[in-house]
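Hi there, hope your week has been kind to you so far. It would help a lot if you went through both lines with me. No rush at all, and the record is pasted right below:

***
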Amino acid sequence: MITIISYVWTAGQTGYHEPVISISRFRVENAAAAQFRADAEVAAAQFAASSGCLGAQLVQNLDEPNLWAIVSHWVQVGDYRRAFNGTPAKLALIPLLSLAIDEPSAYAEPEVVGENHPRATVG
């Protein structure tokens, strides 16, 4: 099941108070797909129940069925970060997300991001 999320992105002050999307991608072998799907649905539900989450869904790539993603929409990045607080969240999220493809996962409108620096150059 895919949930359609509808909301308006608003430009305004830049920084950490704007809506963000998190996309965590996974490569899953066919033999592990059933268990992955069960675990990922629990993680998506944990996100969806978190304060500030506008919606979360598990999706599978149309062209590469071994490629899956959890896509979540947040009021602001702080809400996403706080979703990891507490033992139930850590048990549902950390084991699964540790299997994600190692790449940046948070996205916002370009006007909100401002000047972008690669992770290795920030500091």
In short: Helices lie at 33-48, 77-82, 87-97, 110-113. The CA atoms of residues 14 and 112 lie 5 Å apart.
